[in-house]
C-alpha cells in the first residue's frame, strides 16, 4: 500500500509484516509490525496503529529460525488446544518476519 498526494481516505487492516517509511529527504526506515490498522486522512496523512512494531534491524534470521522451530514443535505436539492455537499464531507472525528478513 502506498500513500500519495490526494489519496482517498481509507482504513486498512494490517497483517503481520514489513512497513517501510520513505522520508521526504530520500531515506527510508523499515519496521516489522505484528498487525494493526492504517488510516489515511483526507489530507493524505497516514496513521498506523499497531500493538507491536520494531525496527527490522533488531531481528536476526538465525534467531527467527530457532523460534519457528520451537513454535512448530508446540503446534504439532500433544499439548493443550490453547498451547497449539497460540503456537500457530506465533508461527504466522514469525513466518511473516522471516519473509521480511530475506
Automatic annotation (TrEMBL):
Pfam families xrefs: ATP-synt_DE_N, ATPD_C_fung
CDD domains from the UniProt entry: F1-ATPase_delta (cd12152)
A cellular-component GO term for this protein: mitochondrial inner membrane
Zinc keyword on record: no
Range of residues in the leader sequence: none
GO molecular function, one term: proton-transporting ATP synthase activity, rotational mechanism
Coiled coil: none
Gene3D superfamilies: 6.10.140.880, F0F1 ATP synthase delta/epsilon subunit, N-terminal (2.60.15.10)
Domain of life from the UniProt record: Eukaryota
Start and end residues of each F1F0-ATP synthase subunit delta C-terminal domain: 59-99
Domain ATP synthase F1 complex delta/epsilon subunit N-terminal: start-end pairs: 1-43
Cell compartment(s), UniProt: Mitochondrion inner membrane
Keyword annotations: ATP synthesis, CF(1), Hydrogen ion transport, Ion transport, Membrane, Mitochondrion, Mitochondrion inner membrane, Transit peptide, Transport
PANTHER family noted in UniProt: ATP SYNTHASE DELTA/EPSILON CHAIN, ATP SYNTHASE SUBUNIT DELTA, MITOCHONDRIAL
Family named by the database record: Belongs to the ATPase epsilon chain family.
Protein name: ATP synthase subunit delta, mitochondrial
Organism (species): Recurvomyces mirabilis
